[in-house]
Every structure is written in C-alpha cells, then in structure tokens.
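@channel sequence for tomorrow's demo:
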Amino acid sequence: MFEVRNYPEMSWSLSRHKTMLTCLRKYAYDYYASHNGWLHNADSLARQTYRLKKITNLEMHFGSVVHDLIYQIIQRVLKNQEIPSEESVIDEIRHQLNRSFIESTKKEHLWQHRPKHYTMLHEIYYSQTNQLPKGKTDKITDRLHTTVSNFFASRSFSDVLNKSEMRFMESEKFRYMKVNGVKIFVVMDLLYKDLTQGKWIIVDWKTGKSSEEDRNQLALYALYLQQKHNIDSRDDIVIRNEYLLDGIHIDHQLKEQDLVNVQRLYGISLEQMQSLLINADENIPKPIEQFSMQEDPRICARCNYQELCFPSTP
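structure tokens (generated this afternoon):
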C-alpha cells in the first residue's frame, strides 16, 4: 500500500551521487523539494519542482525510447512471439520522438497537470521558439539507424536468440541491496546466466559514448549480484557494455580492487549526503538556501531548474 511520507526515504544510487557532485541545489530539488509534488494537495513549490524534474532532453529521451524498445523485443523473444523488423523498430522510435515533439509544443497544458504522462523536451521548454536545434536532430537521425542495426547484430541479442542455453532473470527492474540500512539502487538492463559456461552475464546497453563512470556502475552490479545470488567468486560474473553507437561490446572481468573502490565511493558519498541533513533518522534536509548553486553557466544551461534559480528565465 502506498504511504504518503513527509520526507523521502534515504537511498543511494550512482545517478544521485553524480547529481550531488554536479550541483547541490539541483540535488535538493531532485531528491527533496520535489517530494510529494505529484499529490493534488502538494504545495506550489513541490508541484513546480516535480514538474521540472520530469523535463528531459532529446538525447536522454532517445536513449530511453531505445532502451524501452529493446526490453520489449527481448520479452517477445522469450515469449516466443514474432520479432519486429529493424525497419519497424526504426519507425517506432521515430514515431515516439515525433510524439514527444508534439507533446512539448502543443500539449504543454496537459504536461503541466500530468508531467509523468507527457513528455516535455528541455530544448523546447527553455527556447524562444517551438523548434529543435538542427544539429541535435541531425545527430539523433544519424544515430537512429546505426543504433538499431547494431542492437540486432549485438553479441547479447545473439545470446537472447539462443535462449535454450541461457537462463534469463527479470530485466529493467529497480533492484537494491541494503548497506547499513540504506537502500543502494541498481538498475540492470539485462541479466542472464550462460548455462554452458556457468557464468552470470550482466548487460548494459549504451546509446552514447563510453565514460569513466562505467566501471563503477559495473562494479555496483557485481556487488549486487554477489549478494543476491550468493556467488562466491567474482570470476563467475561477466559484465558487458554493449556500445550500440560504435557496434562493439566490451566484456569486463572485474578485479577485487574495483569492488573495494565502489564500496568506498558509496560510503564516502553517503556521509556527504547525510551531512546535508538536519535529521538523519527522518531524512530531513537543511533549508534549500544552504544547498549551494552551481556557478558554471554551461551546466546551468542544461539544467531543468533554470526558472527556479533564475526567475527571469522564460
């Protein structure tokens, strides 16, 4: 049963950690001020913050649409249903991107009332026109065919098609492990066990470029898997990045130091998060004014909360 709480539950994830490092004011908006903003009787700041939190940008929305369709395709394979063609998948992605543009430009009134159910693109919300930057649309158009083609040709999709030798676990599900009573959230794109090799395979689909954060993300997955399935040796876990833009996959065999590093990371990070509270037991944050604002205008230009930080912004 859903319970209305005055303050959110304290939890940790890599995305939350990254937000805290990027801008403390954004962190406060994302994880505290927006809490309960979906309720009809929420105060105006909570509703506004929750609404702004739901804004996305073209690249993020593209990645989200691709991930959702990959999940649906894999589910169809596992249920022995017909697999859509590459062209039909491309058409569906294009359709969803077009719909997000229409919702952003012509249905803002609906998004204002139900931001979880309608898309608002950052490029539209904070622009003076109802046009997307041509450079961005060209980039997404270029990525569209490449990404879909590389997915169908990927090693991991080949494993999915060879499902008789694989045991699949539920994908795209919010999972967590507890450390000192705090939930550490993990979201894996695809998880299965290769029965011929006796290896657990964790797959992370990437629609963008590789980053330095990838390895910490993978180590967190491995820690979760070891804890959840009582896996004695990390050598039984293979973590794979599928870079759909480049058409390559990279399998990682993590070292013990990788696991130590990520444990140290979330330990230090949690201490920093708790230093921003006036009551750790109830997760009550300090006043919003004590969360400093980012001073780099390039970062602010990409932020969802411009109208809160800079009220003169249209």
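heads up for whoever presents: The two ends are 40 Å apart (CA to CA).
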